[in-house]
Amino acid sequence: MRDGARIAAAIEILETLQTQHQPVKDAVRDWGKAHRFAGSGDRAWIGGLVLDALRHQSSTAYAMDGDAPRTLAIGTVGRVWGVEADAIDAMFAGDDHAPEALTDAEREGLARDISDAPLHIRGDVPEWLEESLVRAFGEAAAEEGRKLSSRAPVDLRVNEAKVDFDRAFKEVSSKLKAAENSPLVRSGIRIPQRDPRGKSAAAESIPAYGKGWVEVQDIGSQLAALASGARAGEQILDYCAGAGGKTLALSALLHNTGQVHAWDIDWRRLRAIWPRLKRADVRNVQVHDDSEDKALGEFVEKMDVVFCDAPCTGTGTWRRRPDAKWRLKPAALDRRMKEQDIVLERAHRYVKPGGRLVYITCSVLPEENGDRVNAFLDKVEGFKPVPVMDALIQSGGLGDGAEALLESCLTEHGALQLSPGRTDTDGFYICVMERVG
Ligand SMILES: C[S@@+](CC[C@H](N)C(=O)[O-])C[C@H]1O[C@@H](n2cnc3c(N)ncnc32)[C@H](O)[C@@H]1O
After folding, report:
1. CDD domains of this UniProt entry (predicted)?
2. Can you tell me the distance from the alpha carbon of 325 to that of 243, in angstroms, rounded to the nearest whole number?
3. Range of the domain at 98
4. Does residue 30 have a known ligand-binding role?
């Protein structure tokens, strides 16, 4: 396909998304199925444009004075991808499948300066969340919004229970040439964000992944596991285990000693954990797919670590799920906050005296983070926040550049708020509390 026809395809998919409220990945996949002539390179290009158009929807619509699918697609190619207006018209010329030539209004929109636009427009964030982002990031709020609107890299965690880092890195970089060491965690490999107009293999297709040497896991998520301070021989409860991403990381920290107990209120989510445990060759995880009292009753005050990767709005992962950014509504934030309170109120009971309660979200909203920790500390006695940095340093798993980078993430109670702007990771919040009573 020529580029003009690819832009026309992206416009078609954006039209579908505006009328059918479908997840963006499904809409791109369905378009591909209905247009078999499009190759994998075409689909990556088209899907990349659709995702970038959603990431920058608000600023593009403001500059272009409209949010019609054509306006958004053209605005993204010009303003985000940096293609000049004449070059866009050249893509359209002489191709029956391409959109019509640019109008004068579109050319003006492509050149418009929006540096004096309101913060939520410049930062491409929902207007109702502007205040929360300012609370979280102060003067850097618009910049963090822009970073949350950029493409995300792919991060890998080397499964050091199975292979040493250097061997895994050599094999990964032989297939994914751009692979680099993470400055934040020793076991992390980064594949920098890729331009959808270029070609590159998916991390899941390389042999090292099939052999269980590496897992796809954001560096922020790897830091959260390290912050648990998990040590060989310990008993850990992963209370919101979901599909088991953090369970695997915690298990690797124990080097197949001790025990990670994986539980989730929604046992269907736990199903995805089984093939992952097998691939990673993990022998110290017990999956508990029963009601809480039956599954966890015997663990009250017995756990060295209770890890709560709480349900959240996922605002910290907007780079990967730009459609979720615009779908999020205040009622959903309220629901998540209530769930977070419930998780902390129930999960803390399993921590043994001297043990640690770790509270994690992949959100950048203070309402889901420090506010929930404060609500918990006000209600439940016997827990004292401890500096996350101490646990991370003691873990021995930090990369050479980590301490300097993480300094900017420090927030109330020695917790950390990571973000694309601060650490070039997803926006994880990590708080550790010790049971002192
Ligand atoms: C952020 S996800 C967990 C992701 C997972 N830890 C991973 O790394 O793949 C949050 C999980 O919390 C679970 N959850 C929601 N409410 C809960 C509750 N009251 N108790 C326990 N788990 C809960 C959800 O079912 C969901 O799987």
Report:
1. AdoMet_MTases
2. 22
3. 3-117
4. no
